[in-house]
From TrEMBL:
UniProt organism field: Mycobacterium novum
CDD domains found in the cross-reference section: GDPD_like_2 (cd08582)
Record's protein name: Putative glycerophosphoryl diester phosphodiesterase 1
InterPro entries noted in UniProt: GP_PDE_dom (IPR030395), PLC-like_Pdiesterase_TIM-brl (IPR017946)
Record-annotated GP-PDE domain positions: 12-268
Signal peptide start-end: none
GO terms of molecular function: phosphoric diester hydrolase activity
GO terms under biological process: lipid metabolic process
Length: 271
């Protein structure tokens, strides 16, 4: 394993936010395949439970924005959700250019399929999994997630640095549930600066990292040192602009989530 100084020198590592979601529809195999090809160090996904207990990669409570269907994820079965198209809404890049027309691999993505894909890749890649709250199934989301990670053999890593999975949430209770059940699994407590600077939420729940937005970090760059002094790393989202990539590199962010992993990695190499 690399020495600590060597690891720090490589920061920031690049996490593909919902896959390479600028060029491909978010949370689809096409988006994650492109992110892996582009050299992302990690991939990020949001997970929700279907009515029949499957973890699927969908950000919103409803599928209306990102599919041809409508309704709450939690009220539909996996089979029902699989009837929708999750790629045609994207219609190429956000600027309207046609280069990224709806690709193959734009169906509903289950967490099982994503984890299998990442673990089968030819180099180690971390998967950052955000559990969404509040949801009707409450703690069942984390229980189902830990069972899935255990089935893949990645729920109990030898150390946080060697872990292939990281669990994140804006819910302190969700992070605590994961830390209590799988103490070696890295966790990120997402949230505002007040949660980190004036409160003790990250300490209370045992989070191994904090996760402010780029707007929050720009307002409070001291969060990097504040986290490091308490033995935590910092994960920042969502970092797409060149000036924000440069800023994260300058202040010592460990992991940056971006919709454009190839462009972001190229910018970091140039810096």
């Amino acid at each position: 394993m690399a020495a600590a100084d060597d690891v720090v020198a490589e920061h920031p590592f690049v996490v593909a936010h919902r896959g390479a979601s600028f060029d491909r529809p978010e949370h689809t195999l096409a988006a994650y395949d492109l992110a892996l090809q582009e050299g992302a160090d990690g991939v990020e996904c949001d997970v929700r439970l279907t009515s029949d207990g499957h973890l699927v990669c969908v950000h919103d409570r409803r599928v209306d924005r990102t599919s041809t269907g409508a309704g709450l994820v939690s009220e539909m079965t996996l089979a029902q959700l699989q009837n929708f198209d999750y790629g045609s809404w994207h219609n190429g890049r956000p600027d309207g250019s046609p280069e990224a027309a709806t690709p193959r691999g734009a169906g509903l993505l289950t967490l099982d399929a994503l984890v299998a894909m990442v673990l089968d890749w030819h180099r180690p890649v971390k998967i950052f999994i955000e559990t969404k709250h509040p949801v009707r199934y409450g703690a069942l989301v984390e229980r189902k997630l830990l069972v899935l990670l255990d089935r893949f053999g990645i729920a109990s890593p030898a150390s946080a640095t060697r872990s292939r999975a990281v669990v994140m949430s804006f819910s302190a209770a969700a992070v605590w549930r994961v830390r209590r059940a799988a103490p070696m699994l890295p966790t990120v407590l997402l949230g505002s600066a007040a949660r980190y600077l004036r409160g003790s939420a990250a300490t209370t729940v045992g989070a191994t990292a904090i996760g402010p937005s780029i707007a929050t970090l720009r307002e409070y760059p001291e969060l990097v040192d504040h986290a490091a002094a308490r033995g935590r790393s910092l994960y920042c989202w969502t970092v797409d602009r060149d000036e924000d990539v440069d800023f994260c590199q300058d202040v010592g962010v460990a992991w940056i989530a971006t919709n454009q992993p190839a462009r972001t990695k190229a910018r970091l190499r140039a810096g």
